[in-house]
Amino acid sequence: MHSYKELRSYLLKNQHTWLITGVAGFIGSNLLEQLLVLNQKVVGIDNFETGYKKNILEAISSAQNISEHDLEKNFTFFEGDIRNYKDCETACDGVEFVLHQAALGSVPRSIENPIRTNSTNINGFLNIITAAMRENVKRFVYAASSSTYGDHPDLPKIEDRIGRPLSPYAVTKYVNELYAQVFKENYGFKTIGLRYFNIFGKRQDPEGAYAAVIPKWISKMLSNQMVSINGDGETSRDFCFIDNAIQINLLAACTTNEQALNEVYNVALNDRTSLNDLFFLLKAKILKKKPNLNIPEPEYLDFRRGDVRHSLADISKAKTLLSYDPKYRISEGLDRSIDWYVENLK
Which fold has domain 4-200+239-268+312-327? Predict the structure, then answer.
């Protein structure tokens, strides 16, 4: 097994070809940036339904500022849709590693439109995993979700103990895991699922009805707008900075540990923060950078349908089998995120 430091050193000296689905999204564009910094060849596919061309351009620009390599020849973008099998087949051609990030996220969106969520997250998943298997991809790493734990009450969340799904989105992400297991049993195809908890960081969209809490709140605070909290504010989450998620994606794709394959892993910190605590933490950090702001107290709304009350991950499995070693705690991750939003929000 590689440590992340060893893996980065290896990748700088050994070029491989990667496919990132959803490359124009938050996590996808951050993976693109890191792989380009490491002088890897990357193919990206996106239909721009929730991703943005500006994310790709910024990822390339940021990587170029760090890397001495010619990035033009290392990145190929393909505008396509994972719901179209031919697009998946084209994207997987000649690829060694797939990092499947494309999905229609958000619990509330899935409740409002379950058919659309199912189409992307299940039909699209089946297309891309089938194409990857037929194109003899070495490793298929896919974005799973902590929503799979559903109504199981135990904390911390351990990978082999799940409850009933609480939303259509949760159903779709669990079906992804079931399909991955079936592909292992029937075709010997090697996959790893990453159950993301609450990933945050630069390029996460703060706008729209389905925006994640951290970018949405940062954006509102920077413009002196009131933050809305669903419920009493004691709902808690295991917030995880984007660089930790990048680390485990690369470790999963390149692991030489056979025991690590065809498993799912929690991607988090094993650290719980309530929404109330998050509000005061963000407010203090933003006022330290922008002392002239007048950030109002939050308003409290009804609890949101489909939401899990508390979330905390056990990450010992990822540490043991993948050498996952998250470097960024929530405070440092928030500092880096706020810096980016201050610089980029208009």
Answer: Rossmann fold (3.40.50)
